[in-house]
Amino acid sequence: MRRLSIYSIILCICLVLLTGCGKKENLLTGRYAIDNLIYEINYEFDEDKNVNVKLVTAGYVAINEMGTYQINEEGNMITLTFPDHIQSLGNFSFTLPNLSGEYPLVKGEGYIQIGDMQYNKVTE
User: Fold this and answer.
1) Top-level CATH class of 25-122?
2) Cα 90 to the center of its chain, rounded Å
3) CA gap 52, 31 in Å, rounded
4) What is the 3-state secondary structure (H, E, C) of the chain?
5) pLDDT in tens, 80-95
6) Where do the structural domains in the chain lie, given as residue ranges?
7) What is the value of pTM for the model shown?
8) Mean pLDDT of 42-57
């Protein structure tokens, strides 16, 4: 009877350890950017599945939005969700492009690719 109890305890410990070895959730962290002569686009991801996108063109911050992201189980698609709203520049108003959607995702060494755009990891 004592042996059975010891085996039961060992079995429970093994099950707890195996449960902890499950598949890790797909997350992105850090800042990724494209910077060229015309514009700069930054995506900053955190572990809580929040993302900030910032578009700077000609020194003007055209977009600076917080949203959320979700990566599928295979890790090859990302869904970005941002609020829809109107931006105003004095008397001129315009609707920001809808950045929300599902895009192919490639994670490489020091970069990510969302759709057709490649963003390099920013280290500061």
Assistant:
1) mainly beta
2) 33
3) 9
4) CHHHHHHHHHHHHHHHHHHHCCCCCCCCCEEEEEECCCEEEEEEECCCCEEEEEEEECCEEEEEEEEEEEECCCCCEEEEECCCCEEEECCEEEECCCCCEEEEEEEECCEEEECCEEEEEECC
5) 998 876 555 555 555 5
6) 25-122
7) 0.71
8) 94
